[in-house]
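Question:
Now give any protein.
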Amino acid sequence: MKLFKKFKSCCLLLSISLFTLTAYAKEVRVGLAVDQLFESRVAENNAIKAAAKKRGFQIIEVVADGDAQTQNAQIQSLISQRVDAILVCAVDQNTINGALMRAQRAGIPVIAYDRKLPNERFYQAYVGPDSVQDGFMAGQHMAKKLKNETGQVLVLELLGALNDQNGIDRSKGFKEALKVLPNVKIISVPTDWDSAKALSATQNAFQANPSIKAVFAATDTQIPSIETVLIGLDKAHPVGHPEHIVITGVNGSNDGYQATKKGFADGIVVMNLDEIGERSISLAEKLIKRQKVSKNHVVAGDFYSSENIADNKSKIWGASE
């Protein structure tokens, strides 16, 4: 009996070894299904590609340009090409459910990145920004700047898209941080991440409420729109000026970096896209090896103020001259 058990154990170890050797005898190919390309998504995808290159993995990238039907077909194509894992940033989960189920049946692990899928049955792991914490850090810095204000303090919040969990979570964290100031009243306006809408919303808000003391931008790419409005109102005073309007945001784009560096904005939270890229590929690697992984992985960003952002330029994913 003992000899039989020993033989069984040896067979199991041999099977695992053979599987591992087979998995790496060929080049590992990872499908990257992208919702659409814009500044931060390109930087995020580049981080994923760098992490894959480090391991010798091949990335097969497909971009849906915001079309859910196109993404559904692209994922099915990746399954037909028998990729070893699929990373997906979904345009709309309801439309790609069928393709994700086919990936499951084909034994291809799916990792959702940046945007969490509402139905956990269709993916093995998620990795993305900790948007609640990112919004909280931006709000926390604003609260410090406003703590000596007396009377009612009006704050304008430029929301992202109301159907985007990252936008919803940034708002949640931001509002939570400002709860330490009971005299603050937040005016929230949706922008759908659109800078033109942000400009219009800022103009309307300041026209109706000229005493607004601070503005939070769910994405720092909208800070130039805020600046345009404040210049027109002769309110674009730098940090330290007695009539300065406090500005914070989240993202890490060059717009946010430049505005903070010159002192128009007080500070921004910079998403850690390198870490998101590294974790995405690390999770894919483990799942390909049939290793167990936990479901949710969120990565908080880092806050940089007008005092230290220039010294930390190398850590700002979007910073350029």
About this structure: Confidence is low (pLDDT under 50) at residues 10-23. The first strand starts at residue 29 and ends at 34. The longest helix spans residues 2-25. The chain is about 45% helix and 20% strand.
